[in-house]
Amino acid sequence: MDSQKMAEKTVQELNDRMLLTPQKKDSLILIFNKYYSEKHLNRSKDNEKFAKAIEQNRDISVKQVLSPFSYQEYLRYIEEQKSKVKSKDRVRHGEREGSTNLIDF
Question: Region (Disordered) spans which residues (predicted)?
Answer without folding.
Answer: 86-105
